[in-house]
Amino acid sequence: MTRHPRDFYPTPHSIITVLLQEIQWYVAEIWEPCAGDGRLTYAIEEHGYKCVSHDIATGNDFFDFTKCASTNLITNPPFKPIRKFIDHAFDIGVERMALVVPERLFACQKGYEQFTKHRPSRFINLSWREDYLGKGGSPDRALALAIWDQPSSPTCQYSIRTRVTKTERK
After folding, report:
1. pLDDT (tens digit, 9 = 90+) per residue, 122-142?
2. Residue 55: exposed, middle, or buried by beta-carbon count in 10 A (0-12, 13-18, 19+)?
3. Which of 5, 15, 99, 165 is 20 to 30 A removed from 77 (C-alpha atoms)?
């Protein structure tokens, strides 16, 4: 499979809806460092947050930041460097983070090591798959949401979410 340049796969609206429903933060500002086409930024703003938005395509590579633009981060990061992404976010001062992630993010030795270092508060498997690649066939990737209410939680709550209907999105 040929990957899109810079791992650009716009976040499906169904996943954005669930992601924003799951956030339980009382904060004014959120950083979206992998903004892509802006759809997640727009949704964050529609939920009443101020959103600081960056993207590598506009010259703002997340890995070049030495200080976070906001201590609250929500994004659909590129999956290839996702472990590096998680470590870097907390290294530069992120305190709360919500990411779209592969469902098996922690299902290996490196994943386990990262889980023990930066245990999320919640890990939510999604019960459906999205056709990110627009192939028209059966989507090939199961996704989850990893939510950190702090850089390393003492426990991790696991749950499974079903697809949100169009009426629930409104």
Report:
1. 999 999 887 666 666 666 678
2. buried
3. 165
